[in-house]
C-alpha cells in the first residue's frame, strides 16, 4: 500500500464536477452521494444530462483517431500504471467504496483486487495480434484486421460499481476506442471518480476517457448519440431491453450483461456442511445484490432437510449493520425501494406456502439473512431476481428434474453443482442452458480471464472478459490490395 500519498483521491479536485477532458461542471447540476447505511453525506459530484453526454461524446470522438494510433505498448503501459495506482492506493480507496455502496470490507477489497486484475488483463489485450491474411480469388493481397469501434459508451450498475465499470472501460481503451462512461448516480465515486483518478495519474491523454455520472436520461442520450458507436451495458434486464431498443434504432453495437436467477444444485452425495457454507456465501454476499447470486438452492430430496437446517443456523448468526464498524457480514440494501421489493417477494412466497425459517424482516435498510424453504414455481421468488439476502430452497427428486428447473428460468447467467462425484456433476453441467457453470462451487464467480455472460434475460449473446473482449470491443476491417488498378468490362 502507498503510505506516501494518503490523499490520492483528492476530493477537492472533483467535488461537484465530472470528468471531461478535465474536471468540469455539468449543465445538469450537482448530486449528493449518501451512505446507504447511515444516510450521511459522502460527497457531491457533477451529474450529467443529455447535453453533458453530447459534449463528452464529441470530445471523445475528437481524440479517438489519435488514441488508436498510439502503439499497443504505449496503451499497455498506461493501463498497467493505472492498475498499479489502484492497488497502491487500495487502503485509502476501500473505505470510500464501503461507505458509498454499503459494502463490507472484504467485498470492497475484492473490487480493488479484481479491478486491478481487469486492467492488467486489458493491458495484455493491447498487444494481441489483430490481423488475418485471407485466401484470395485473384492476384490481390487480402487481409482483415480488428479495429476499434470508435467511441464506446459504458453504462454500469451500483452493486459492484468499480469492477463492472472498469472491466468495460479498460478493454475498450486497450484496443484504441475512447470511452464515455456513465456510472450509476448512487455510486459515482467507486464507479467513476476512482477510475478517472487512476487514469488521470497514469497519464491517459486528455479526452480519451470521459466520466459523467447520471441517470436513465443520460444513459438514453448515450444510446442515441451519433458520436457513440457501441454501448456496453451492465444492469437489469428491464434497463437492458430499453437500451437495446433505443441503441438498435440508432444502429449501434450493443453488449448487454444483465441479471440472473442462478441455481445451486446440491446432490445427495454432497458434504452438507460445505454445501451450506456455499449456499450462504452465494445467497448472502453483498446482501444478495449480485447478478451471479445464488437465487435458487435446488436440494435433492433426501438431503434437503439436513441442508436447510445447517443453512438456517448460519443465517441466524450473520450480523447485519453498518459496514464501517467492521463487525458485520451483511451491510445495507442500496435503497428503500429495493427493500420494499425484497419484502414483496418474501411475503408473496410465504402467502403461497413457503416456510420462512430465518429473517424475513428488516430494520430500515438492514435486511436480515433470510431462508425460505418449499419455494415453488407459482411463487414470484422462484422466478424473479430478489437482489436481497434471501436463500430460496426448492427440492428435486431426479437429476433430470434439477436440470429442467434450471433450464426453465427466464435467466441463464450462472449455475453451480455440488457433489462428491465430479463426473456426475459435470454430466449435469453439460445439460444446463446457462453461460457459466461452477462444479463444486456456488454461483458467485467472476474475473478477467473467462468469458462472462449468459443467454435469455441475462444478455444478448455477447460476453465480457477473456477471449470475448477482442470480439466485443473491436470489429473487422477487410483490406484488399492490387498492385495496380485493372479495367472492367464497362
Ligand atoms: P439498472 O438497469 O436499473 O441500472 C443499471 C444502469 O443503467 C445504471 O447506470 C442506470 O442509471 C442505467 N439505466 C437504467 N435505465 C436506463 C435506460 N433506460 N437507458 C440507459 N441507461 C439506463 O440496474 P440496477 O438495478 O442498478 O442493477 C442491478 C441489476 O444489474 C440486476 O438485475 C443485476 O443482476 C444486474 N447486473 C448484471 C451484471 C452482469 O455482469 N451480468 C453485473 C451486475 C449487475
Estimate the strand proportion: 15-25%
Secondary structure: helix percent: 40-55%
For the record, what CATH class of the largest domain applies? Alpha Beta
Q: What's the average pLDDT? A: 97
Stretches with pLDDT under 50, minimum 5 residues: none
Order of the strands making up the biggest sheet: 14-17-18-13-12-19-20
Shape from CA axes? globular
End-to-end distance, in Å?
Answer: 71 Å
| Tally of helical runs | 16
Level-2 CATH architecture of the largest domain: 3-Layer(aba) Sandwich
Number of strands: 21
Number of domains: 2
Give the C-alpha Rg: 24 Å
Instruction: Provide the CATH superfamily of the largest domain.
Output: Aldehyde Dehydrogenase, Chain A, domain 1
CATH fold type of the largest domain: Aldehyde Dehydrogenase, Chain A, domain 1
Largest sheet: 7 strands, mixed
What would you call the structural class?
alpha/beta
Bound molecules: nicotinamide-adenine-dinucleotide
What characteristics describe this protein?
490 residues, Aldehyde Dehydrogenase, Chain A, domain 1, Aldehyde Dehydrogenase, Chain A, domain 2, 2 domains, seven-stranded mixed beta sheet, 16 helices
Tell me what the structure shows:
There is one protein chain. The chain is α/β, with parallel strands linked by helices and 490 residues long. The chain has 2 domains: 268 residues, Aldehyde Dehydrogenase, Chain A, domain 1, CATH 3.40.605.10; 178 residues, Aldehyde Dehydrogenase, Chain A, domain 2. The protein contains 16 helices and 21 strands. It has a 7-stranded mixed sheet, with helices on both faces. It has a 5-stranded parallel sheet with strand order 9-8-7-10-11, sandwiched between helices. Helix 3 packs across helix 7, helix 5 packs parallel to helix 6 and helix 8 packs parallel to helix 9. The longest helix has 21 residues. It starts with 10 loop residues before the first helix and ends in a 9-residue tail after the last strand. The mean pLDDT is 97.
Amino acid at each position: 500500500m502507498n503510505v506516501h500519498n494518503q490523499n490520492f483521491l483528492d476530493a477537492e479536485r472533483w467535488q461537484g464536477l465530472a470528468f471531461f477532458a478535465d474536471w468540469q461542471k455539468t449543465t445538469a447540476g450537482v448530486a449528493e452521494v449518501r451512505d446507504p447505511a447511515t444516510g450521511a453525506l459522502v460527497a457531491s459530484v457533477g451529474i450529467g444530462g443529455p447535453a453533458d453526454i453530447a459534449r463528452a461524446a464529441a470530445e471523445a470522438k475528437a481524440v479517438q483517431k489519435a488514441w488508436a494510433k498510439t502503439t499497443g505498448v504505449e496503451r499497455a503501459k498506461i493501463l498497467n500504471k493505472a492498475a498499479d495506482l489502484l492497488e497502491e492506493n487500495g487502503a485509502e480507496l476501500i473505505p470510500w467504496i464501503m461507505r458509498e455502496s454499503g459494502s463490507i470490507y472484504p467485498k470492497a477489497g475484492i473490487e480493488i483486487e479484481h479491478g486491478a486484475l481487469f486492467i492488467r488483463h486489458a493491458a495484455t489485450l493491447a498487444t494481441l495480434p489483430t490481423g488475418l491474411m485471407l485466401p484470395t480469388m485473384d492476384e490481390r493481397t487480402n487481409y482483415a484486421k480488428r479495429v476499434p469501434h470508435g467511441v464506446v459508451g459504458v453504462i454500469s450498475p451500483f452493486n459492484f460499481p468499480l469492477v463492472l465499470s472498469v472491466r468495460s472501460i479498460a478493454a475498450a481503451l486497450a484496443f484504441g476506442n475512447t470511452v464515455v462512461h456513465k456510472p450509476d448516480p448512487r455510486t459515482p465515486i467507486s464507479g467513476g471518480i476512482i477510475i478517472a483518478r487512476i487514469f488521470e495519474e497514469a497519464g491517459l491523454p486528455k479526452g480519451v476517457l470521459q466520466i459523467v455520472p447520471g441517470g436513465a436520461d443520460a444513459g438514453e442520450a448515450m444510446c442515441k448519440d451519433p458520436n457513440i458507436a457501441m454501448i456496453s451495458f451492465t444492469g437489469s434486464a428491464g434497463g437492458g431491453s430499453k437500451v437495446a431498443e433505443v441503441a438498435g434504432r440508432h444502429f449501434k453495437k450493443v453488449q448487454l450483461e444483465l441479471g440472473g436467477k442462478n441455481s445451486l444444485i446440491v446432490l445427495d452425495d454432497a458434504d452438507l456442511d460445505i454445501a451450506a457454507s456455499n449456499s450462504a456465501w452465494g445467497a448472502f454476499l453483498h446482501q444478495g445484490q449480485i447478478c451471479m447470486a445464488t437465487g435458487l438452492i435446488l436440494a435433492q430430496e433426501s438431503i434437503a432437510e439436513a441442508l436447510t437446517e445447517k443453512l438456517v443456523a448460519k443465517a441466524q448468526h450473520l450480523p447485519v449493520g453498518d459496514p464501517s464498524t467492521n463487525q458485520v457480514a451483511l451491510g445495507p440494501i442500496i435503497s428503500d425501494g429495493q427493500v420494499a421489493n425484497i419484502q414483496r417477494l418474501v411475503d408473496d412466497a410465504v402467502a403461497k406456502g413457503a416456510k420462512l425459517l430465518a429473517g424475513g424482516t428488516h430494520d430500515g435498510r438492514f435486511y436480515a439473512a433470510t431462508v425460505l424453504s418449499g419455494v415453488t414455481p407459482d411463487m414470484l421468488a422462484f422466478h424473479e431476481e430478489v437482489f436481497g439476502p434471501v436463500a430460496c430452497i426448492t427440492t428435486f427428486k431426479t437429476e433430470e428434474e434439477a436440470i429442467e428447473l434450471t433450464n426453465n428460468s427466464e435467466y441463464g447467467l450462472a449455475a453451480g453443482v455440488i457433489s462428491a462425484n465430479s463426473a456426475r456433476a459435470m454430466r449435469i453441467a453439460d445439460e444446463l442452458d446457462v453461460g457459466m457453470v461452477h462444479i463444486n462451487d456456488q454461483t458467485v464467480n467472476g474475473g478477467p480471464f473467462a468469458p462472462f455472460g449468459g443467454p435469455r434475460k441475462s444478455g444478448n449473446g455477447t460476453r465480457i472478459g477473456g477471449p470475448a473482449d477482442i470480439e466485443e470491443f473491436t470489429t473487422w476491417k477487410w483490406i484488399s490490395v492490387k498492385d495496380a488498378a485493372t479495367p472492367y468490362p464497362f
